[in-house]
Amino acid sequence: MIRFVLNVLWLIFGGGLVLAIGYGIAALICFVLVVTIPFGVASLRLASYSLWPFGRTLVPKPGVGVASGVANVIWVVLAGWWLALSHIVAGVSLCLTIIGIPFGVANFKLVPAAIWPLGQEVVPAP
Question: What is the reported pTM?
Fold first, then answer.
């Protein structure tokens, strides 16, 4: 029940809806440019994770190959570093208030997903 309440508050006050919309727009752009479809799928995964982060976690996908690692390096150079930096800045600024600490922690949880999204999957937290 606490996870549900935190997710609803995250949508309203923590910026979850704005993040999901931003990642969704990035996914649409990646789908239009056919070569970047894997990045679009990763961006949709990030949109889903940023929409409802509490009670879910990121784990490595089994059987991921070298192509995923190479694509992640490209992702880091083109988009991952500034996405991770924006989550870090938002997380620090949210942690300045006591009420914002859970939302800051959620932003910190999104940093690994933003910097290295390919070869990862979002699963329910234990």
Answer: 0.79
